[in-house]
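Per your request, structure below.
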Protein backbone atom coordinates (compact mmCIF):
# COMPACT_ATOMS: atom_id res chain seq x y z
CA UNK A 1 0.00 0.00 0.00
CA UNK A 2 1.25 3.51 -0.77
CA UNK A 3 2.07 5.59 2.33
CA UNK A 4 -1.27 6.86 3.49
CA UNK A 5 -3.33 8.08 6.42
CA UNK A 6 -6.71 6.47 7.04
CA UNK A 7 -9.15 8.67 8.94
CA UNK A 8 -12.21 7.31 10.70
CA UNK A 9 -15.04 9.81 10.99
CA UNK A 10 -18.61 9.72 12.30
CA UNK A 11 -20.79 10.62 15.24
CA UNK A 12 -19.72 9.84 18.79
CA UNK A 13 -20.58 6.27 19.72
CA UNK A 14 -20.20 4.86 16.21
CA UNK A 15 -17.08 2.92 17.25
CA UNK A 16 -14.30 4.97 15.64
CA UNK A 17 -11.86 4.55 18.56
CA UNK A 18 -12.66 0.86 19.01
CA UNK A 19 -12.33 0.04 15.30
CA UNK A 20 -9.18 2.14 14.91
CA UNK A 21 -7.26 0.18 17.56
CA UNK A 22 -8.34 -3.19 16.22
CA UNK A 23 -7.74 -2.28 12.58
CA UNK A 24 -4.26 -1.08 13.43
CA UNK A 25 -3.39 -4.62 14.62
CA UNK A 26 -4.91 -6.18 11.53
CA UNK A 27 -3.17 -4.07 8.90
CA UNK A 28 -0.01 -3.40 10.88
CA UNK A 29 -0.41 0.36 10.92
CA UNK A 30 0.15 2.54 13.95
CA UNK A 31 -2.95 4.24 15.26
CA UNK A 32 -3.65 7.61 16.80
CA UNK A 33 -6.81 8.77 18.52
CA UNK A 34 -7.08 12.56 18.31
CA UNK A 35 -9.02 12.77 21.60
CA UNK A 36 -6.31 10.73 23.36
CA UNK A 37 -3.59 12.91 21.83
CA UNK A 38 -5.32 16.06 23.12
CA UNK A 39 -5.67 14.58 26.59
CA UNK A 40 -1.96 13.63 26.70
CA UNK A 41 -0.76 16.89 25.19
CA UNK A 42 -2.79 19.20 27.43
CA UNK A 43 -2.91 16.88 30.48
CA UNK A 44 -6.65 17.44 30.88
CA UNK A 45 -9.63 15.32 29.99
CA UNK A 46 -12.15 16.78 27.54
CA UNK A 47 -14.66 17.70 30.26
CA UNK A 48 -11.95 19.71 32.03
CA UNK A 49 -10.97 21.45 28.80
CA UNK A 50 -14.60 22.48 28.24
CA UNK A 51 -15.04 23.55 31.86
CA UNK A 52 -11.83 25.62 31.92
CA UNK A 53 -12.15 26.93 28.35
CA UNK A 54 -14.85 26.20 25.79
CA UNK A 55 -15.67 24.14 22.70
CA UNK A 56 -13.95 26.68 20.48
CA UNK A 57 -10.67 26.00 22.28
CA UNK A 58 -11.21 22.25 22.00
CA UNK A 59 -11.80 22.59 18.24
CA UNK A 60 -8.56 24.57 18.04
CA UNK A 61 -6.70 21.73 19.83
CA UNK A 62 -8.31 19.19 17.49
CA UNK A 63 -7.09 21.10 14.44
CA UNK A 64 -3.61 21.46 15.94
CA UNK A 65 -3.28 17.71 16.54
CA UNK A 66 -4.69 16.90 13.10
CA UNK A 67 -2.04 19.09 11.50
CA UNK A 68 0.81 17.38 13.39
CA UNK A 69 -0.54 13.98 12.43
CA UNK A 70 -0.51 14.97 8.79
CA UNK A 71 3.26 14.77 8.83
CA UNK A 72 3.15 11.08 9.67
CA UNK A 73 2.23 8.44 7.10
CA UNK A 74 1.06 4.86 7.43
CA UNK A 75 -1.21 5.48 10.34
CA UNK A 76 -4.86 5.09 11.07
CA UNK A 77 -6.49 7.99 12.87
CA UNK A 78 -9.59 8.00 15.00
CA UNK A 79 -11.10 11.49 14.90
CA UNK A 80 -13.61 12.99 17.33
CA UNK A 81 -17.17 13.34 16.05
CA UNK A 82 -16.81 17.10 15.61
CA UNK A 83 -13.71 17.08 13.39
CA UNK A 84 -15.81 17.87 10.31
CA UNK A 85 -17.04 21.14 11.84
CA UNK A 86 -13.99 23.04 10.60
CA UNK A 87 -13.66 23.11 6.83
CA UNK A 88 -9.89 23.36 7.12
CA UNK A 89 -9.87 19.95 8.85
CA UNK A 90 -11.79 18.42 5.97
CA UNK A 91 -9.39 19.96 3.52
CA UNK A 92 -6.40 18.47 5.42
CA UNK A 93 -7.93 15.03 5.63
CA UNK A 94 -8.91 15.00 1.96
CA UNK A 95 -5.44 16.01 0.91
CA UNK A 96 -3.57 13.58 3.10
CA UNK A 97 -5.47 10.34 3.10
CA UNK A 98 -8.69 8.43 2.77
CA UNK A 99 -11.72 9.09 4.91
CA UNK A 100 -13.89 6.24 6.17
CA UNK A 101 -17.29 7.16 7.59
CA UNK A 102 -18.91 4.94 10.21
CA UNK A 103 -22.57 5.87 9.96
CA UNK A 104 -25.44 5.22 12.34
CA UNK A 105 -28.92 6.50 13.08
CA UNK A 106 -29.72 8.32 16.31
CA UNK A 107 -31.35 5.22 17.82
CA UNK A 108 -28.14 3.23 17.57
CA UNK A 109 -26.00 6.11 18.81
CA UNK A 110 -28.24 6.57 21.84
CA UNK A 111 -28.13 2.85 22.56
CA UNK A 112 -24.33 2.79 22.38
CA UNK A 113 -23.91 5.84 24.58
CA UNK A 114 -26.57 4.88 27.13
CA UNK A 115 -24.12 3.21 29.45
CA UNK A 116 -21.15 5.28 28.38
CA UNK A 117 -18.10 4.74 30.59
CA UNK A 118 -16.31 7.54 28.79
CA UNK A 119 -18.43 10.51 29.91
CA UNK A 120 -15.36 12.62 30.68
CA UNK A 121 -14.39 12.29 27.05
CA UNK A 122 -17.84 13.11 25.73
CA UNK A 123 -19.27 16.06 27.65
CA UNK A 124 -22.61 17.38 26.44
CA UNK A 125 -22.43 19.65 23.43
CA UNK A 126 -25.57 21.70 24.06
CA UNK A 127 -27.97 22.45 26.90
CA UNK A 128 -30.64 20.23 25.35
CA UNK A 129 -31.58 16.85 26.86
CA UNK A 130 -29.29 14.08 25.65
CA UNK A 131 -31.69 12.45 23.16
CA UNK A 132 -32.66 15.75 21.54
CA UNK A 133 -29.03 16.79 21.39
CA UNK A 134 -27.98 13.66 19.49
CA UNK A 135 -30.89 13.95 17.04
CA UNK A 136 -30.12 17.61 16.39
CA UNK A 137 -26.37 17.17 16.00
CA UNK A 138 -26.72 14.18 13.71
CA UNK A 139 -29.09 16.19 11.53
CA UNK A 140 -26.63 19.07 11.34
CA UNK A 141 -23.54 16.94 10.65
CA UNK A 142 -24.87 14.11 8.53
CA UNK A 143 -24.35 15.78 5.14
CA UNK A 144 -20.82 16.84 5.96
CA UNK A 145 -19.77 13.33 6.99
CA UNK A 146 -21.39 12.02 3.86
CA UNK A 147 -19.87 14.54 1.52
CA UNK A 148 -16.25 14.29 2.60
CA UNK A 149 -15.96 10.52 3.01
CA UNK A 150 -14.29 8.23 0.49
CA UNK A 151 -15.97 5.15 1.92
CA UNK A 152 -19.02 4.53 4.13
CA UNK A 153 -19.80 1.62 6.35
CA UNK A 154 -22.69 0.99 8.71
CA UNK A 155 -21.78 1.01 12.36
CA UNK A 156 -24.71 -1.31 12.98
CA UNK A 157 -22.61 -4.39 12.27
CA UNK A 158 -20.43 -6.54 14.48
CA UNK A 159 -16.91 -5.25 15.05
CA UNK A 160 -15.55 -8.22 13.09
CA UNK A 161 -17.76 -7.47 10.09
CA UNK A 162 -16.73 -3.81 10.11
CA UNK A 163 -13.06 -4.78 10.22
CA UNK A 164 -13.48 -7.23 7.35
CA UNK A 165 -15.36 -4.62 5.33
CA UNK A 166 -12.67 -1.98 5.80
CA UNK A 167 -9.90 -4.48 4.99
CA UNK A 168 -11.71 -5.38 1.80
CA UNK A 169 -11.99 -1.68 0.88
CA UNK A 170 -8.24 -1.27 1.45
CA UNK A 171 -7.42 -4.37 -0.56
CA UNK A 172 -9.53 -3.39 -3.55
CA UNK A 173 -8.96 0.34 -3.62
CA UNK A 174 -5.72 1.28 -1.95
CA UNK A 175 -3.27 -1.48 -2.77
CA UNK A 176 -1.61 -1.06 -6.10
N1 LIG B 1 -19.69 -2.52 16.11
C1 LIG B 1 -19.97 -2.38 17.40
N2 LIG B 1 -20.90 -3.17 17.99
C2 LIG B 1 -21.23 -3.01 19.28
N3 LIG B 1 -20.68 -2.10 20.12
C3 LIG B 1 -19.74 -1.29 19.61
C4 LIG B 1 -19.33 -1.37 18.23
N4 LIG B 1 -18.40 -0.42 18.01
C5 LIG B 1 -18.23 0.23 19.19
N5 LIG B 1 -19.02 -0.29 20.16
C6 LIG B 1 -19.15 0.22 21.55
O1 LIG B 1 -19.72 1.54 21.46
C7 LIG B 1 -19.16 2.41 22.43
C8 LIG B 1 -18.55 3.63 21.75
O2 LIG B 1 -17.42 3.23 21.01
P1 LIG B 1 -16.21 4.22 20.69
O3 LIG B 1 -15.17 3.40 20.00
O4 LIG B 1 -15.78 4.96 21.90
O5 LIG B 1 -16.91 5.22 19.66
P2 LIG B 1 -16.43 6.63 19.12
O6 LIG B 1 -14.94 6.70 19.21
O7 LIG B 1 -16.92 6.66 17.71
O8 LIG B 1 -17.13 7.64 19.97
C9 LIG B 1 -18.14 1.56 23.20
O9 LIG B 1 -18.78 1.08 24.38
C10 LIG B 1 -17.82 0.42 22.25
O10 LIG B 1 -17.43 -0.76 22.94
O1 LIG C 1 -19.00 14.78 18.56
C1 LIG C 1 -18.25 15.58 19.17
O2 LIG C 1 -18.31 16.81 18.99
C2 LIG C 1 -17.23 15.02 20.12
C3 LIG C 1 -16.94 13.67 20.07
C4 LIG C 1 -15.96 13.05 20.98
O3 LIG C 1 -15.21 12.02 20.33
P1 LIG C 1 -15.84 10.62 19.85
O4 LIG C 1 -16.57 10.88 18.56
O5 LIG C 1 -14.67 9.73 19.66
O6 LIG C 1 -16.75 10.15 20.94
C5 LIG C 1 -14.96 14.08 21.52
O7 LIG C 1 -14.08 14.51 20.52
C6 LIG C 1 -15.68 15.27 22.09
O8 LIG C 1 -16.45 14.87 23.19
C7 LIG C 1 -16.57 15.95 21.03
MG1 LIG D 1 -13.52 8.09 19.96
Amino acid sequence: MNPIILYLIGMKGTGKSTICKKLSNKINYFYLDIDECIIKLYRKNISEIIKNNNWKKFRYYENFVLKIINNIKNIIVSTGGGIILLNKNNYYMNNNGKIIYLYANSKLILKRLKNDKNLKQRPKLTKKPFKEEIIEILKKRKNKYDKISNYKISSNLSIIKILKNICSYILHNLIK
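The chain has a mean pLDDT of 94.

Regards,
D.
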